[in-house]
Specification:
There is one protein chain. This protein is an alpha/beta fold. The protein is built from 11 helices and 10 strands. α4 crosses α6 and α5 packs across α6. The longest helix has 37 residues. It is globular. The two termini are 33 Å apart.
Length: 323
Amino acid sequence: MPVSLPSDKENTRYQASLSTMWAVGNFSNLNDFYRSSQKLGFSHLELNHQVNSAMLNEFNSAPFVISSIHEPCPADISVDELKKRDWLISSAKEENRQNGVNAIKRSIDLANKMNVPVIVVHCGAVSLDMNSEKRLRALFEEGGSGTEDYKELFQQMIDERSKQAAPHLESVKKSLLELLDYGEQFNVQLGLENRYHYNDIPTQDEMKPLLDLAGPERLGFIYDVGHAQALGRLGFFSHRGWLDRFSTRMIGTHLHDVKGVTDHLPPGQGEVDFKMVANYLPDNAYRALEINPKKTFDQIAAGLKYLSDNGCIKNYSTGGNQL
């Protein structure tokens, strides 16, 4: 159902972008989505991997400020289809890997056309049986994270990933070097995002050698709060560990809340310690809210205020400086 908006003009502006994740199913076009984001108080947008060429052709982007593009955008081949085809920059098959690189190059081209400074990059995954993680998450939700079954399955996942990771990591490094070379002509920063699934690349230990491929002016860290929280709850990586190790390379963040291991909730609806998060966010890192499209206008508005109250975003109307 389309979102119903209040008719009064919203004067508050926050240091935040709204991801087009929330647009899906709520708006007939991106122009309406942008006007709605303004009413909520957002100052910027993030174009995500659900935006295709047809949507972009109808989008009058000239008056709007885009903080970031989350590849693959334009998504004329969906993320699910790219995964199904193994057209990922982590693929051990060269033709597939190159198709994954080409998808991100199209995002870089779009960034250049729209004068957008940052591309959010997914680094692909290690080929594992996802049924193991599904069982682990089910055990967690049932309160079984301390059981022997959980511990055994947890260790099996670690062992299996360790056996298979090396060729995929080499593909990611090769792909990133190609993308850095391609993006240099456009002065675009690539941002590597921490991910939601354990088989996804990178782990905390894998992030450093990937960031070491280029300096901070070319390559940075996109801190996804919800993903860090969810994998932390499952026991794989400390949430705070991402921040202690990589906050100095952070160029952007995806802000959303998590209840258990369910993410993309408006801030304030879950269990994330956003005051802790605020202590690590660099002033110049963009802030984007990635919110489930089923959440309401009022819930997102409350989430913005919650982030402001907890120090994660600035309220421009109270004297905060813009991005």
